[in-house]
Design goal:
Length: about 375
């Protein structure tokens, strides 16, 4: 397999021994009620003054790789005026089953240590008053089964549709996720994942920008995760201009400030199109994955998107290297309207998506292996 290497000043690429975590990870009972158990570890949403026990001693000597999958915008429902139509998301799922939207992507989500998706919309069984805006997305709480059947263990709610039905809708969404055993994080709470060995990885959600007040909250979350013993912290940002491959000033602001605060990786979405990859002071930044299982529109302007596989290698409990694999996808195979079931692209179609990434940031990840994925390896700066 061919790799692209990009180095910044003072960085040395160090290839860690990649030891895939093959054993199922057991569930710890030490966390508070905000913890969520999954087959691959334990998630904790750090809301309020949640206290965590210190990480187990073995975490300090952990050497190996944690494999993650990141998915773009997932709307498990749609607008109230058309979400139950014959060609809408809900009817499609009712006709084809909860496995239907992610059936192709399970090749990745079922073979990793954890999967994180952007849940863009409200899950509720109540008739709530929607806020005044152009688009309001919602679906029934039963749609959490789309997540669990695809082994999506965690979602970010740091986006512009999680409050489409006000505070009540947001509360219903979090309650539905908790009942289904799906972890979450948002602008109001970070999340922490702990493996069987005690290795901890933190997740912070950013929506729109990191202005003064948002930056203060972000910095506090970053410090809380580091104090909890996180060996790596990942920022998931929802920002940028919709339907453009141009990186916005706010996206650059988030990347720069998050890197300065100590994040190890940034993964983005919101523009609904593919944007490129870059390094900011040695930290990998993926600006936009685009859509995924997107029930928000029956007709989409751009069907190209990405799934990201991130492999974080650790040496003696410290992050040593990040390998990113970009999988080009089409979010629908039906030319008439969105069928809400993404598939992997191959050949020239896959190359087209990689070319869009290059046009966006100038960083060429155009090495396509036999499985039609692009790969880039990043060194991790010494801290």
């Amino acid at each position: 397999m061919a790799f692209i290497h990009r180095h910044t000043n003072g960085l040395t690429a160090r290839r860690a021994a990649l030891l895939l975590l093959a054993a199922l990870l057991t569930v710890s009972s030490a966390f508070s009620a905000s913890s969520t158990a999954s087959a691959s570890g334990v998630w904790t949403t750090l809301a309020g003054a949640a206290e965590l026990p210190p990480p187990p001693e073995p975490a300090a000597s952990f050497t190996g790789t944690v494999t993650m999958t990141f998915l773009g915008d997932c709307t498990l429902g749609g607008e109230s005026k058309n979400r139950t139509t014959a060609t809408g998301f809900i009817k499609r799922v009712e006709e084809n089953g909860y496995d239907y939207p992610m059936q192709a992507l399970k090749a990745l989500t079922k073979t990793d240590d954890l999967t994180v998706a952007n849940l863009e919309g409200v899950l509720t069984d109540r008739k709530l008053k929607k806020v005044q805006k152009t688009y309001n997305f919602s679906g029934p709480t039963s749609m959490t089964q789309v997540l669990t059947r695809a082994e999506i263990e965690c979602v970010t709610l740091a986006n512009n549709h999680s409050h489409d039905y006000g505070a009540a809708g947001y509360a219903d969404t979090k309650a539905a996720l908790k009942a289904a055993g799906v972890a979450w994080f948002g602008t109001d709470a970070a999340a922490l994942w702990e493996s069987e060995s005690g290795l901890r990885i933190g997740f912070i959600g950013v929506n729109y920008s990191l202005y003064t007040s948002q930056l203060s909250a972000y910095t506090r979350q970053m410090q809380a995760l580091r104090d909890a013993g996180c060996a790596a912290v990942i920022t998931v940002m929802h920002a940028g201009e919709e339907y453009t491959q141009t990186i916005s000033g706010l996206q650059k602001q988030i990347a720069e400030r998050a890197v300065e605060a100590g994040t190890d990786l940034i993964v983005g979405h919101h523009p609904h199109v593919v944007q490129g990859f870059d390094l900011v002071d040695g930290v990998p930044v993926v600006y936009s994955l685009g859509n995924c299982a997107f029930g928000g529109a029956r007709h989409v302007k751009d069907t190209d998107a990405l799934v990201l596989r991130a492999e974080l290698a650790f040496e003696a409990g410290k992050l040593s290297e990040i390998t990113l694999r970009f999988y080009p996808i089409a979010i629908t195979t039906d030319e008439r309207y969105n069928d809400f079931s993404p598939v992997f692209l191959k050949g020239d179609d896959a190359w087209r998506v990689l070319e869009k990434m290059k046009q966006s940031t100038g960083f060429d990840v155009g090495v396509l292996d036999a499985e039609n994925r692009a790969t880039v390896i990043c060194a991790v700066p010494e801290k």
